[in-house]
Specification:
alpha/beta, UDP-n-acetylglucosamine1-carboxyvinyl-transferase, Chain, 2 domains, four-stranded mixed sheet, about 30% helix, about 25% strand, binds uridine-diphosphate-N-acetylglucosamine, binds phosphoenolpyruvate
């Protein structure tokens, strides 16, 4: 049996959706919760995602006590922890490497399986390791593991990142939180999720200033204490539903969507003719009758987010004229292009760019989610394709979207998630 999302194109999406807590904020926050040698952390607005289950399994494996009650997760890491994260977890989710910084800071030792690449690129962690070494750790890589050790506490250091890596910035802030002296992180990532992590750590007793700017200063403290924290809203989930409104010419109110985190996305959607208004604690998004073409280049925050690239490509397919979308953050984040082509999309890859000649007359087809955002984008394209689109490989979508099918159905989409018999390939039916 294979699980599929089946969507039939046609019709506008209208109604209200509440944006979940951010996947990319909650994963580092749960990883950071294991630094606390005293007190429990109580985390609110935790989305019920497969990735959250994975990070909870990683820290439970280390002996942290994790209790989930709806969207509230309590972590008690006061008992002695194991300092290893095995491959079985890291292979499911690269963000498992975020336990390196907290373990090294608290225990002077960490051993984590190397994450390796994935469908969107090779994704090395050299910038994380360079930072740990600058703080005095000995780092070795072998047998598929990275191991870091330090005698006594890490030492504060001046670290310049070659690229504003989100994960490296998070791992190094966490490591520096318990280091001796001051760490200055230059060319740091400025994503809202970095600010959320720093706010959480500061509530735990850390001394971090400058999160959200390119220079972050961390004065190490001796210990941190569990605290209460509410996870920020997921700007990528919000952006995905904004595209759902835009592509169907619908009208959706996104409760808890944070305009400040979505400036680049809002600006590009407005260029394409979409109306966006702040309303109460959220954003109202109204799709136009005709979409206009535009060009987009992905960049680190506050630039256009790579995690919204494929959704915007789906939208460009329906815009009149030529649009160009350039990916500068990941080396290989265009796997969805071939899948869109199965749906009769007119687009081509040129180096790091995709040229979209719209509007395409999209036709329903059987397509595979090649990664999490690609999966969501195929569903978005299916909302306006002629006939039925069947999307497979749903485990990717489940990593980052809570009840995606149900939420779209509630907005009026003709969509369901089903289990279907796997069709045998032709050759296995042959009797010769
Ligand atoms: C769990 C999480 O928060 N994931 C997000 C995080 O991923 P992640 O933290 O992995 O992304 P990074 O910002 O680290 O990676 C960006 C680029 O830098 C490269 N790089 C990174 C680290 C390093 O040591 N060396 C190196 O070369 C990567 O291969 C990639 O090409 O930020 C990405 C960029 O906004 C988002 O797409 C992901 O959704
Ligand atoms: C690429 C993403 O996540 P991850 O870094 O967890 O693979 C994403 O959220 O789009």
């Amino acid at each position: 049996m294979v699980e599929k999302i089946i969507v039939r194109g046609g019709g506008q999406l209208n109604g209200t959706v509440k944006v979940e807590g951010a996947k990319n904020a909650v994963l580092p926050v749960i990883a950071a919760s294991i630094i606390a040698s005293e007190g429990k952390s109580v985390l609110h607005e935790v989305p019920e995602l497969a990735d959250v289950t994975t990070i909870n399994q990683v820290i439970s494996h280390m002996n942290a006590e994790v209790t989930t009650n709806g969207n509230t997760v309590t972590v008690d890491a006061t008992q002695p922890l194991k300092t290893e994260a095995p491959f079985e977890y890291v292979r499911k989710m690269r963000a498992s490497v975020l336990v390196l910084g907290p373990l090294l800071a608290r225990y002077g030792h960490a051993k984590v399986a190397l994450p390796g690449g994935c469908a969107i690129g090779s994704r090395p962690i050299d910038q994380h390791l360079k930072g740990f070494e600058a703080m005095g750790a000995q780092v070795t890589v072998g047998d598929g593991y990275v191991e870091a050790n330090t005698d006594g506490r890490l030492k504060g250091a001046k670290i310049y990142l070659d690229f504003p890596s989100v994960g490296a910035t998070e791992n190094l802030i966490m490591a520096a939180a318990l280091a001796e002296g001051r760490t200055v992180l230059e060319n740091a990532a400025k994503e809202p999720e970095i600010i959320d992590l720093a706010n959480y750590l500061n509530k735990m007793g850390a001394r971090i200033v400058g999160a959200g700017t390119e220079t972050i200063k961390i004065d190490g403290v001796e210990k941190l204490r569990g605290t209460e924290h509410t996870i920020i809203p997921d700007r990528v989930e919000a952006g995905t539903f904004m595209v759902a409104a835009a592509i169907t010419g619908g009208n959706i109110l996104l409760e808890r969507a944070e305009a400040e985190h979505l400036r680049a996305v809002i600006s590009k959607l407005e260029e394409m003719g979409v109306t966006i208004q702040e309303e109460g604690e959220g954003l109202r998004v109204i799709g136009p009758k005709y979409l206009k073409s535009t060009d987009i280049k992905t960049m680190p925050h506050p630039g256009f987010p790579t995690d919204m690239q494929s959704q915007m490509m789906a939208l460009m397919l329906r815009a009149k004229g030529s649009s160009v979308i350039t990916e500068t953050v990941f080396e290989n984040r265009f796997m969805h292009v071939e899948e869109f082509r199965r749906m009769n999309a007119n687009l081509r890859i040129e180096g790091r760019s995709v040229i979209v000649d719209g509007p395409s007359d999209l036709q329903g087809a059987e397509v595979a989610a090649t990664d999490l955002r690609a999966g969501a984008s195929l569903v978005l394209a299916g909302l306006v394709a002629d006939g039925y689109t069947r999307v497979t490989e749903l485990r990717h979508i489940d990593r980052g979207y809570v009840n995606f099918t149900e939420k779209l159905a509630k907005l009026g989409a003709n969509i369901e998630r089903v289990k279907e018999e796997q069709e045998l390939p032709q050759e296995s039916l042959s009797t010769s």
